[in-house]
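Sample entry (123 residues):
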Amino acid sequence: MEQKFLDVMSHEGPTTIITINAQPASVVNTWSSYVEINQAENYLLIPAAGMHSIEQDFPTDNHVVLTMGSKAVMGTEGPGAGFHVHGTGEFLESGSAYDEMKAKFPWIRKVLKVNIDEIIQKI
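Predicted structure, serialized as tokens:
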């Protein structure tokens, strides 16, 4: 993962999750500060209180795109950097990753794990 992506994720802002192949696409939002990044294994963990629409799309196609950005990080043309993350998702409801996230966010029902295929800087 590039440092600029990590810098963007260190600033508070919305993270949008989209099931790109669903008809119609499902779109949900969370806060970047909720997203846990595992650099070594290249995945994200995201607490899910709702996200029912995303979860309902996964049996057919679990490909997702996430968008995130921050005006506080220099982008390609000046202030403001933004990224698209492409990957596949799965919902966890048990195990050590779930337990760790549940301890931080007691309001969750599951954890969305996004296995990253590609991170692209857009701005």
